């Protein structure tokens, strides 16, 4: 199957077959990271620009490592050190970056829809590395890769997502992705952190962590997005931890081989205690490792595959 997309903006635009292709490609790419010499010439001569308007550790580092393992050249621009601080608009910045003829622009922005706006205006492929509360498609893909790797399938699983659903682009992308691939998704959190209409995305809503965890194959904990007004939606971190922090009792309601996941960064002692985050069921660092493989796969499929070849 050829992958003919120009951009990766959201999981909703991908078909189930395209998701399978991305995950299969990522499985192959993962082997490169286990070699002594972790580099192949696949994207030699290609240029990738990272344009991050919000902080990131995992996403930016894994894109950078992914690109370098495929021999692409990379440039990283942050909002705080770019000419955005001198008043340049996002569209002007994008057009100027485009004039330097990059092959891919990877963007993270606090405004929902910013990557979509840029994608319409540039020839380069655009990858959404997280836009506001809207979407984080590469996170959902690496989460699906991790679950498929551990469970052998994405079909028929029960995925519990717990925490600040309202402000989480990870929750939205995962609800769409996992339901598309045949899993059922249940979400739980304080009522102030459950957005109205989330059921229309295919998620079932419950209001206790035990109800969410019951018979779950995966328990995915989310951080409170304090940078998106989460501070005002519950009395204190302690109160939150008492009601929605993961406990051994909640884990015991899930299936015995349930995976404990978290997109990171984790707030230890708030949504997840250290002994569970670091415990035998946790696959949090597997998620991080698979982030490199998924981003290698996306870069390869966007600019190393058939669509790009037929453009030239
Ligand atoms: N999961 C995730 O997006 O982490 P970063 O914010 O560190 O990139």
Describe the fold and architecture:
With 312 residues, the chain is of the alpha/beta class. It folds into 2 domains: 11-135 and 289-311, Aspartate/ornithine carbamoyltransferase (Rossmann fold); 137-283, Aspartate/ornithine carbamoyltransferase (Rossmann fold, 3-Layer(aba) Sandwich). It has helices at residues 16-30, 58-69, 90-99, 114-119, 137-151, 169-180, 209-213, 237-244, 248-253, 274-277, 284-303, 306-311, and strands spanning 47-52, 73-78, 104-109, 125-131, 158-162, 184-188, 203-206, 218-221, 259-261. The strands form 2 sheets. It has a 5-stranded parallel sheet with strand order 7-6-5-8-9. It has a 4-stranded parallel sheet with strand order 2-1-3-4. Strand 1 (47-52), helix 2 and strand 2 (73-78) form a beta-alpha-beta unit. Helix 5 crosses helix 6. The protein is globular. The chain binds phosphoric acid mono(formamide)ester. Phosphoric acid mono(formamide)ester binds next to helix 2.
């Amino acid at each position: 199957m050829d992958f003919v997309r120009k951009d990766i903006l959201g999981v909703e635009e991908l078909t189930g077959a395209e998701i399978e292709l991305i995950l299969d490609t990522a499985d192959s790419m993962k082997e490169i990271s286990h070699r002594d010499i972790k580099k192949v010439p696949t994207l030699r001569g290609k240029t990738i620009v990272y344009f991050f308007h919000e902080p990131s550790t995992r996403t930016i580092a894994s894109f950078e490592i992914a690109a370098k393992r495929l021999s692409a050249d990379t440039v990283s621009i942050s909002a705080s050190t770019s000419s955005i601080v001198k008043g340049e608009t996002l569209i002007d910045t994008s057009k100027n970056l485009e004039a330097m003829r990059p092959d891919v622009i990877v963007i993270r922005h606090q405004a929902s829809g910013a990557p979509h706006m840029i994608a319409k205006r540039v020839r380069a492929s655009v990858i959404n590395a997280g836009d506001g509360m809207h979407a984080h498609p590469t996170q959902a893909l690496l989460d699906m890769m991790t679950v498929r790797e551990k469970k052998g399938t994405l079909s028929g699983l029960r995925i519990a997502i717990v925490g600040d659903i309202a402000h989480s682009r990870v929750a939205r992308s995962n609800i769409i992705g996992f339901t598309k691939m045949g899993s059922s998704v249940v979400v739980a959190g304080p009522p102030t952190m459950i957005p109205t209409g989330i059921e229309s995305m295919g998620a079932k809503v419950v209001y206790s962590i035990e109800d969410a965890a019951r018979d779950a194959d995966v328990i995915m904990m989310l951080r409170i997005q304090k940078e998106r007004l989460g501070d005002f939606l519950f009395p204190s971190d302690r109160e939150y931890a008492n009601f929605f922090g993961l406990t051994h009792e909640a884990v015991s309601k899930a299936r015995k081989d349930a995976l404990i996941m978290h997109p990171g960064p984790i707030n230890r002692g708030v949504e997840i205690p250290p002994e569970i985050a670091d415990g035998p069921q946790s696959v949090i660092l597997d998620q991080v490792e698979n982030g490199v493989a998924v981003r290698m796969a996306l870069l390869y499929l966007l600019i190393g595959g058939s669509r790009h070849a037929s453009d030239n």
